[in-house]
Amino acid sequence: MNGIVYVLIALIILIAGAWVASLVLKRKHFTELELLESRKIDLMSKPVFEEISRIKQLTLDGETQASFAKWRQDWDKIITVAFPEVEIMIFDAEEAIGKFRFNKGKDIGGRITSKLDAIEASIQAIFRDIEKLMKIASKNEEKCIALKERCKELKKHIMVYNHALHKSVSTLEREIDECFSYFDQIDDKILCGDYFSASQLLTLIEKKHQELMDKTIIIPNLYKVCREEIPAELLQMKKAYEEMSKEGYILKKLNFDKKYQLFEKEVEKCIELLDHAKAFEAKQIADEINEQIDKICEKLSLEREAKQYVDQIHEALNKGLNNLAYQIDKISAETVRVLLTYHVSDEDLLLKGKLENNIEELKAKWTEVRQQYIDKQAPYSIIKDQVTEIKAALTDYQKDLEIYSGKLGSLCTEESAAREKLQQIQVLVRDIIYHINQANLLAIPDEFTILLDEAKAVIEVVDSKLQKRPLNMKEVLIHLNDATEKVDSLKLTTDKIIETSMLAEKVIQYGNRYRLKYPEILIALTEAEELFRSYQYADALELASIAIEKVEPGFFRNLNLDIPSLQPFEVADADLVAAKAKPADAKLDKHSVEQEAGNENTEQLLPEDQKDMETVK
Q1: Where does 303-407 sit in CATH, by number?
Q2: How is 472-512 classified by DSSP, letter by letter?
Q3: What is the pTM of this model?
Q4: Closest residue by Cα to residue 510 from 605, 585, 368
């Protein structure tokens, strides 16, 4: 029973909450509708009719009348159609909200907002257009008065300076009178209320006035240019042309006479245009005439400069080509002589042949150009370009000839250097043989004998190549480099053999002190002696050094030997190793060797062994 009561209470509370919430939403939507209603009233109260009535004080005709009719029609449509539609939509929204149909009410509210926005935009457009028309109406009168004064001043200016404007005065006066006729049309447009057309006519008159002002400035200057400056320039150019023609310049390609006549006609045409006040067309023609005159004068100036350049250089260039031809003949004879003694590469011979052909072609081209210059058969500007090309080619061929000549000259130098180098190598081989014989080795290893035979063989090849004719220095240098490498390798091997044998002997003598104490030392040294007598000095040194290192740590490092097979040695009796071993950084000297030999019952070193201990260190 109690449960049912609780459920009923909960339902009552839920229903009451829903009812309160719906009332709150209903109030909210009604508030929004009130705002829209208030906005509609504000728009209806806009003084649109009053603004339209302002137009009635103007003369209504033409475009003004059409605009007035359109604005009144738009406002009537807003009052009779748009606002009633908004009122109906507001009523529908209130009814929907009253029935708690909030979504429908919200949708209608959105449409009301859009409708009010469109109405407000139309009203604002009417206000802007009315304001624009009123400004045009007020400004037209001010602008018309100011423009009339400017035209009057321009007419006075034309009358005062009619002597500078010459025959163009009549045309200019006619054009300024046309401007005054436009003012009558403007007055008529204003009287009829066609303010927009009046504004367009004022803009046209203003543009025309500016053009006439520009003409009054340009025409006097152009008359002076066409009647004085251009004719003077033409006469000066004609005089320069005739003088250069008498001096022998080839100027036919300029077509001067034809162009001169054309310029005179263009000047007459320009003056005729000025007489009819066509200043801009006349200015364009005058500018083109001046540009063409400048180009012709520039070409005449370039011809003079070209003649001066050719006059200065042609003798030197002729001597340079003759000298180059002499040099190539001399080099050709030298090549024939060198080929009897030396081998010249096909590439170098091809270079010489190409140089001979190029120089012959260059001489033929110069002969033709020089004849044109002497006989005055071509413009100097063309001759200058050809001379410049010939000069550049001459410089290049001289460089190539010097390179080839240097290669020929270097053959003899290379031969002398090669013979000197061969002699030095032969002397070094003799020194190496003498040095290894003085080392008093038990025997000479096969390694030395093989390297010595290879070096001698390569030396014999170099010597035979040097005796061959024609001498091919390229092959000589290749074998000479091979011989140098062989002899260098022989010298390094010889030094290594001698040093290794001497050090192996000293190390074995030094290790004799440990023969009686350590059987493994005795075995190792005996084997090392066998290797030494078998001429395997490096193996003997390695074996003896490793054996001594086991009982005297640090000995191997003090000798600075690089023996990879050396491994750390551990003695079973640690006390014995500690008593016998020296510190790792201890240095071997004669005193320490003698002291250890006296304290231990080891075999004494021979006197000569004691002398050699410093060498072992």
Answers
A1: 1.20.1440
A2: -HHHHHHHHHHHHHHHHHHHHHHHHHHHHHHHHHHHHHHHG
A3: 0.46
A4: 605
